[in-house]
Write a structure and sequence with these properties.
The protein is mainly β. It has two domains: 26-111, Beta Barrel (Lipocalin), CATH 2.40.128.180; 127-136 and 147-222, Lipocalin (Beta Barrel), CATH 2.40.128. 6% of the residues lie in helices and 47% in strands. It has two helices and 18 strands. The protein has helices spanning 26-29, 115-123, and strands spanning 35-43, 46-54, 61-65, 68-73, 81-87, 90-99, 103-110, 113-114, 126-133, 149-156, 161-164, 167-168, 174-176, 179-186, 189-197, 205-211, 214-216, 218-219. A five-stranded antiparallel sheet has the order 12-11-10-9-18, with no helix packed on it. The protein has a five-stranded antiparallel sheet with strand order 13-14-15-16-17, with no helix packed on it. The chain starts with 25 loop residues before the first helix and ends in a 16-residue tail after the last strand. InterPro entries: FAIM1, FAIM1_dom_sf. This is Fas apoptotic inhibitory molecule 1.
Length: 235
């Protein structure tokens, strides 16, 4: 004879650990308040936001890339260690190490290099511009209206591949006097990427981005390292 009600009999109880998140949709599993470490890095012409969730009480460890879950471990009794995952053929490792005061240190390695070193080296392989344009921005600069759109334009120097918000552009460069021009249009706003010789071997080719005929200052990847949510894809 069972003292349990019919709904509480042992055969009716769930065998799934209550700490598991398998039954929760991915969009609901992501909670920015649970993120303990965040990095941003360029990989093969695209920018990626990498986030770590480290539950010291729940034993859960989750890794998110551009808002998508790529790794999850539940019920981890060892709170330190490393997890390996891939982003666009790049091998990534996140290490969790103990720190004084019952705290933890988090480190990201990409293709065997610490995040800072990897990013510094990649900075020399890209040219980057950030701008805002749209129906009310006119000049392509900040301070535009609600219809404006932020754009991140990246040029990969070894292949001369041009990316706009992680999308590869198909426009071909056209030879002009002194170099080449690559023209494209975003939200009815003309963009021209100029390549001109600097006149000396040290500087090589100089690349300039014009938006509505106005030069846009070149940016550094480090400028969007902390919170690049608005210019990263999350789908």
């Amino acid at each position: 004879m069972s003292f349990l009600s019919p709904t509480l009999r042992m055969e009716n109880l769930s065998t799934v650990p209550i700490m598991s998140l398998d039954h929760v949709p991915e969009a609901q599993r992501y909670n920015k308040d649970n993120i303990v470490a965040q990095w941003c890095a360029p990989i093969n012409g695209k920018m990626y936001r990498i986030e770590l969730e480290h539950g010291t009480t729940s034993g859960r460890r989750m890794i998110w890339v551009n808002g998508r879950e790529v790794l999850r471990r539940d019920w981890m009794f060892k709170l330190v260690g490393e997890d390996t995952f891939d982003i666009d053929q790049a091998r990534c490792i996140i290490r969790v190490d103990p720190a004084p005061g019952f705290k933890y240190e988090y480190s990201l390695y990409i293709d065997g290099k610490p995040h800072a070193q990897y990013t510094e080296e990649l900075t020399r392989q890209y040219r980057l511009w950030l701008c805002t344009c749209g129906s009310g921005s006119g000049s392509g600069q900040a301070g535009s209206t609600d219809a404006s759109q932020e754009y991140r334009i990246m040029l990969k120097l070894d292949t001369l591949s041009l990316y706009v918000n992680d999308e590869l552009r198909e426009e071909a460069a056209v030879f002009v006097e002194g170099g080449t021009d690559t023209s494209f249009v975003l939200q009815d706003t003309p963009f021209v990427l100029q390549a001109r010789s600097s006149g000396n071997k040290h500087d090589g080719i100089v690349h300039t981005l014009l938006v509505n005929g106005v030069p846009v200052p070149e940016a550094k990847i480090q400028q969007i390292m902390q919170e690049p949510v608005s210019i990263l894809q999350t789908n």
